[in-house]
Amino acid sequence: MKKFAVIGILLLSAMLIMQACEEHTTAPDDTYNFQTPPYFPQLISPTNNPLTKSGVNLGRMLFYDPILSSDSTISCASCHNITSSFAENKKYSVGVAGATGDVNAMALINLAWQRKFFWNGRAGSLEEQALGPINNPLEMHETSENVAAKLTHSKTYAPLFKKAFGSANVTPEMIGKAISQFERIIVSNQSTYDKFYEIQEQAFTAEEYAGFRIFFTERGQCFHCHGANGTLLAHNLDTIFRNNGLLTDQEMIGKGLSFVTKKATDDGKFKVPTLRNIELTGPYMHDGRFATLADVMDFYSSGIKQNANLDINFTKSPERLEQYGGLGLTSTEKQQVIAFLKTLTDTAFTHNPAYQNPFKK
Amino acid sequence: MKLQLVFVLLFLSLMGCTWDNQDSTGSLKVNFVHTFQDATLQILESNQLIYTTTTGNKFNIKNLKYYISKLTLYQNNGAKYDVNMVKLINPMEQNTNYQNYTLANIPNGKYTKMSFIFGVDSARNTFPFGLPNNSENNAMEWPYTLGGGYHFMMMEGVFQNTKSDTVGYAIHLGVTPNQFYNEFPLDLTVNDNDQSITMQVNMEQWFNGINKINLNDGYGYMMEDQKKQLLFKQNGVGVFTLK
User: Fold this and answer.
1) Distance (Å) from the C-alpha of residue A137 to the closest C-alpha of chain B?
2) Among A3, A315, A332, B162, which residue carries the largest CB count within 10 Å?
3) Domains observed in chain A
C-alpha cells in the first residue's frame, strides 16, 4: 500500500514539474540564437533571464530611449556611444540638467562574461547594473519605479513588455532584464588580435608583435592584470580590482572597491577594464585623467604613485619603481605596446547593425 | 499523460540501475589543509608581515592558487585507479570545494600508494585552452610568449626588503618541466564506503626545503627564470604530507 502511495506521489510530482516547465517555456520562435564566438567560453545567461528576441529587441530600444531619464533627455546611449565602443570620449559624462558625473563612462563590450560592474564593482549582475544610471542623480536622475510607470502607460512599450516578459505591468526588474539582455549580446571578437588564436604571431606586424611581447612578458607585466593569452584581455572573465598607483594614500580613501566593501585594503582598487577597442574608448582610467594611450604608457612607465595598496606587480620591482617611477619603458617600447593595443580595435563591432540605434532610420 | 508516465517509469528504472552499481565502489575525499609549519595558514589582505623565512625575511602570503593533476591510487598488484583529474586548489575561496578533491567510484580493494602531479599534466598544459575554457582556468593562464599553458602555482605577497621597505614578491611556477611528481604510502581499504584523508600543505617548505629562499634575491620576476623556478620545484617535494 505504501509502495503505491510513494509511486502516486512521484507521479503527481513529475506531472506538476512538467506542467510548471511548460508554463514558463519561451516560445520556440522567440529564443535568441546567441552564437558563442570561437575561443570564447560558453555564454551562460541567468536562468531567470534567458535571451529572447523580444527581450533583446526591447532592451535595445530602451538603451537608446531617453524615456529612462527624468526629463527625457538622456538615454544609455548618450554616454555609451557605439562609435566609441559604447564609451564616451569625455572625461565625465553630462547627465540631466547638466549634472556632471564623477567617473569616466566604461566601455560596454563582452559584458556577458563579466561578473561585477562599475569601476567600484557595486553591481553584482548586469541586470542590477542596468538600473544604476536611471537612479543616479548625476546621470538620469530618475527612479526605476517612475520609469516603470511611464513604460506601463506607453502604447509602444507596454505590449513589448507583455511579449517579452508576459506582463504589460512593467516593473523595474523587467526593465533591468530587458536592458541587460541587449547588453549581453554586445560582443567584440573580430579584431586583428582575434586572429592570434589561429595564426599566432603572424597576426601582427613586427611593431605590433614587439608590443605583444612586452605586454605578455614580465617586461611590461600587463598580462598579470589584463589577462594571459588574451582570454581575460578579450573577455575580462574573472573580474579583478587592482590598485594601479593612480592615487596617493590620502587620495584613495573610500575610493574604488572600498566604497563597496568598506575595507581600507580595497582603497584605490578599480575594476580592470577590458582593453578591447581601447583605441576608441579614451579618455582613460576611472576618472578619465589620461587623454591618450601615450599618456597611459607614460603613466605606467614613470608616473606610478606609491601607496599602501599598490599592486604587487609594481612593488615587486622596487628598483624599477625607485629608478623610473614605474616600468621604465623606452619610448620605442611604449610605441610598440600602443601598436599592439590598436590590434584590439574591432570596427565590425562599432558598425554592427544589431547594436545600432533602432530609432534612426 | 502517457509521456509523463513513461518519464516516471524511466526515472525509477534508472535509479534501480544506480543502486545495482553501488555495491562495488567507494570514494576517497582528499582534503588539502594549508599550514605554515603546523599552524593554519593565514592568507592576508593587509601588508602585515606574519611569517619569517629561515633566511630572515619577514613576509606574508596574500594570494595562493595551484593545480594538482593525475591523482592516482595504486594497489600492490600493480592495478591503479586514475581518473585523469586536474583540480585548482584555492585556499582563499570560502567554498571548501576548492580545497578538496573526491575520487569517486573507486573499485573496492586495498590501496597502498597515492600519487599526484603538482601542476597541470603535460597533455593539458597547452595553448590554447588545454583545460576547460572558463574563468578560473583562464585566470591561471601562462602567456604564450613564455611557453603557454597554465600557472602551476601563483603565490604572492609582500616582504620587508633590505631597505626595510615592504615590497611584493610573486612565486609563479609554470611550464611543463617544472611539474613535479608526489607519491605517498597509503593504507586504504575501499569496501563500499566513503572515506577522507588529510593532505597537509606546509607552505613554509616552499621557502625552507633543500633550497633556502631569500626573497631579496629577486622573486618578483621569475616567470622567465628557469633557475629560480627550479629552486621552488625542488622545495615543493617536501610541501605535501599525507596525514
Assistant:
1) 34
2) A315
3) 41-187 (1.10.760.10), 192-346 (1.10.760.10)
